[in-house]
Amino acid sequence: MTIPLVLVAAVADNGVIGDDDKLIWRLKTDLKRFRTLTLGRPMIMGRKTFHSIGKPLPGRETVVLTRDPAFAFAGVHVSHDLEGAVATARDLAERAGVDSVAVVGGAEVYAQLLPSVERLYLTLVHARPAGDAVFPAYDPLRFRETFREEHPAGPDDEHAFTFVDLVRRNSHENATDKLPLR
């Protein structure tokens, strides 16, 4: 069995996910969810996303996908092509005995791997910020919603947001089941 790819992203109502290689909101609750969803799992991310984090995250193997042949960073795995990144991450997941690989950004990596992911773990941020990184469009009929949880803005979360989990439909499922809202 192939270890599945899962995508983890926070997406504003207007599709924006970042600006100038930085997070554009403060959502402590979402950061806790990110940690829960990725801890122990290998993560695939682009070089810009890695630079925005600045270091390998504890308890997670990091595979950085980059076209820069000179890129190197202690404690991360580097791949210069998509297939190599996925193969490396799946190998790491298998050796760690975990059930998935997390795809964590940025926009270009999301766009390249979206056709291959089995699940989407989205945080829909109820804001419309300016930004230069946008989440790729996806066909909501190809996914089935399995979880939704609303959160108000508060002291630790500057915007209201919704957690939404989606699973890729198999070819036999009815596409008119509960559709995700974007």
| Rg of Cα set | 16 Å
Number of domains: 1
The major sheet is characterized as: 8 strands, mixed
Strand content: 25-35%
Poorly predicted ranges: 178-182
Q: Can you give the mean pLDDT? A: 94
| CATH topology annotation | Dihydrofolate Reductase, subunit A
Query: Structural class from helices and strands?
Result: alpha/beta
What sort of overall outline do the alpha carbons produce when their principal axes are compared?
Answer: globular
What are the secondary-structure elements, in order, as H or E?
A: EEHEHEEHEHEEEE
Strand order of the largest sheet: 5-4-3-6-1-7-10-9
> Termini distance?
31 Å
CATH homologous superfamily caption: Dihydrofolate Reductase, subunit A
CATH class: Alpha Beta
The helix tally amounts to 4
Structural summary, described in words:
This protein has helices spanning 28-38, 47-53, 82-96, 107-113; strands at residues 5-12, 16-18, 43-46, 62-65, 77-79, 101-103, 117-125, 133-134, 143-151, 161-168. The chain is α/β, with parallel strands linked by helices and 182 residues long. The chain has one domain: Dihydrofolate Reductase, subunit A (3-Layer(aba) Sandwich). Strands 5-4-3-6-1-7-10-9 form an 8-stranded mixed β-sheet, sandwiched between helices. It has a two-stranded antiparallel sheet with strand order 2-8. The chain is globular, with a radius of gyration of 16 Å. The protein starts with a strand and ends in a 14-residue tail after the last strand.
